[in-house]
Amino acid sequence: MADEDKTEETPEETTAEDTPTEETVAEAPDSVVEEVETAASEAGAGDTSTVDAPEAAEAPPAEPQEVLAPKERRARKRAAKAPAASGPKTIEERNAERLAARAHKAKLRRNYRQRAKTKAAEARKDQPAAEPDVAPEHGPGRAKVRQGIVVSDKADKTIVVRVDVTRRHRRYGKIMRTSTKLHAHDERNDAGAGDTVRVVECRPMSRTKRWRLTDVLEKAK
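User: That's the sequence. What structure does it adopt?
Assistant: Structure tokens below.
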């Protein structure tokens, strides 16, 4: 029994002997080497820790852009620019904001009017000064001047002048012809029926006379 126990091999020794080493693999025939390599490759294939990580997944496709109507687009733009909502305000705060807004608008109006005045002054500076036709009866203001044809000279020192106006309609473009009659004062009765004359605005001389004869441009034939 003692001899049998000595001859038995322990499990550890058996495991160590069964495990192939590099020297035994090198000394073994080619068929054994192939079997050992096959077993090692299978063991390596089962170990997922040595397998390279898969490539990064492709980026997801871009989301389609939302198509908005022009009205909705403008509403969103206004909402983005609108100031943040604040809490309830007192009467004094609302009045202060209203006065500040009015002062800002008044400043903008003053600046606009100043620029307009400057621009008009520069335009007048470039143009030659015209001599205005001022009637002594009318005072220092600029009097209106009209040119027309005398249709009646029966009254003493009074003529009736027809002024023809031709203009184009602003919307439809049609040529529109209109005429009006003016009663003018003729101190020396120079004008006759059919004459082309120039009259100037003056002070009221009678119930209907508001004009005065200045020149007889063309005598009737």
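The chain has six helices and five strands.
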